Write the structure tokens for this entry.
Amino acid sequence: MTADIFSLAGRVAFVTGAGQGLGRAMAEAMAEAGAAVALFERDPELLAETEAALVEDGARVLAIAGDVTDANALAAAIDATVQGLGGLDIVIANAGISEAAPGLFHEMPREDWERVIEVNLGGVYNTLRPALAHMVAEGRGKLILIGSMFGLAAAAGIFPRPAYAASKGAVVNLTRELGLEYALHGIQVNALLPGFFRTKTRPRNPDLARAMAAYTPMGRIAEADEIKGAAIFLASRASDFMTGQMLVLDGGVLAR
Ligand SMILES: NC(=O)c1ccc[n+]([C@@H]2O[C@H](COP(=O)([O-])OP(=O)(O)OC[C@H]3O[C@@H](n4cnc5c(N)ncnc54)[C@H](O)[C@@H]3O)[C@@H](O)[C@H]2O)c1
């Protein structure tokens, strides 16, 4: 049956930044497709909310509080997932932030730059290294990096966010690099590049929401749930011959 190739029954997924927004939607998607899910999130309240929602829907869940900038916390979380849920098949490196406010590069405080790079790139490093150590030993796995359409184009077309654009550009080429490095290890590495999606924190105000919709050829921004199908595709057997690639969900922005 066609649906079987999208099934995640018997799989274990690990999602960072799973407390809200796209991370929560993708954690739900993994569970809805049949996977057990480990949730990694820095905010304990958001973590508990996602955990409760997934448990209510009958999922097997492991909730782990921690920050992706803490390499030791992630190594321990990956171990706890393998022990607690019986393996590790899918990792979604989702946790990410942008600058506190848009601004030109030469005016950007160094702390802002460092924080964004530390979370968006350092966090990916901290997440994928212990996960890959496990997956290489098993000879299979799926890594999904969450980039942005602003990894393939400048953000300044709508607002200047130099650290965000630099970090997401790096995520794109790291995806290609890891796709090749692990192609013979049975591990597929791909990235999902969202355009504008509504979450609890974004857009930050109604003017920005209108500007984002106007910037998007479809004339609207997406709801968080609209990421689910692409996440299931990249996590499942359906994408077994795809690696080192970007899947863009942007309402047409990059087609312009
Ligand atoms: N929403 C969009 O329009 C959009 C567009 C393109 C890309 N993205 C990317 O999607 C990912 C998720 O974005 P979102 O919009 O859902 O964000 P969000 O702010 O709504 O949610 C992010 C979640 O990650 C958690 N988090 C943040 N920093 C963390 C850290 N250091 N350690 C652990 N958890 C942390 C937050 O507490 C929150 O629960 C990010 O990588 C973002 O860059 C989002």
About this structure: Helices lie at 21-32, 44-56, 71-85, 110-138, 162-181, 206-215, 228-235. DSSP finds seven helices and nine strands in the chain. The mean pLDDT is 97.
